[in-house]
Amino acid sequence: MALTGASDASGEEESGSGGKPFLLRALQIALVVSLYWVTSISMVFLNKYLLDSPSLKLDTPIFVTFYQCLVTTLLCKGLSTLSTCCPGTVDFPSLRLDLRVARSVLPLSVVFIGMITFNNLCLKYVGVAFYNVGRSLTTVFNVLLSYLLLKQTTSFYALLTCGIIIGGFWLGVDQEGAEGTLSLTGTIFGVLASLCVSLNAIYTKKVLPAVDGSIWRLTFYNNVNACALFLPLLLLLGEVQVLRNFAQLGSAHFWGMMTLGGLFGFAIGYVTGLQIKFTSPLTHNVSGTAKACAQTVLAVLYYEETKSFLWWTSNMMVLGGSSAYTWVRGWEMKKVQEDPSPKEDEKSAVGV
Fold it and tell me: pTM of this prediction?
């Protein structure tokens, strides 16, 4: 069982896929995509239960996030130990806590904490059906921050798709308000989560050399730092006292659901890398968009909600704009690879 991350294994997959029959290849892709969908959708619904269930009545979003980080940390360390003690059982990098590396990763960990915390806070205050629209500005922030921080410009067509996403987000907020289900707090947390997701993607590339380019080492250090930084927050926000008064604190069912949430949090990183490995980053983004659509429909059916035509239109605008942006960026990258650079043309002209 390989758990080395998408980037490490992609080359092996590409080299080995040529000899596989088409039917076997298609079946593998279908299974991996299905695994990604099931894991991602299950994690969202489970987190909604833990954060805002009327039967659970637990108002400790920071503790829920902290516990999920703790489970991920223990799983990473456990798999690393298993890989060292029983070579061949799992393929996982060796992990040893180095305080210098932890300090190097700390700025990214702060962004990582903001990302997972704001994601959970958004989910706490908004419905699962609106969750994707509430966090839909990630692509827009990617474009904006790429220009501000990296000085990278974006094409007109890509900007046009961002305009569609913004329009869908605005219409979705308007329709939630018209139906009386809008949570301004949840929407703000969703925007902040989108910002942190974009920042996390940008700073991850800068921090990766500190962990030898290993996504799993970065995951380990991010979650170790998160656990340490969450502890004072639990005290400052009074969640420790809330936990003391929680009626189901000794319930095996409660801790089982909490642990399952942590397992899903760990698994989503693995299945995401697996989906990219067996398909491509472009196909992964398309699959994610389709998954978001299915998740929205499931949420409306599960919670027996009735939505207006304009509400569904806002979702289609967000999902359509995101898909169009993915397609445009993929097309532009392919065009750059196919077209010779000006410098190469100049060199060939001089050579003649």
Answer: 0.85
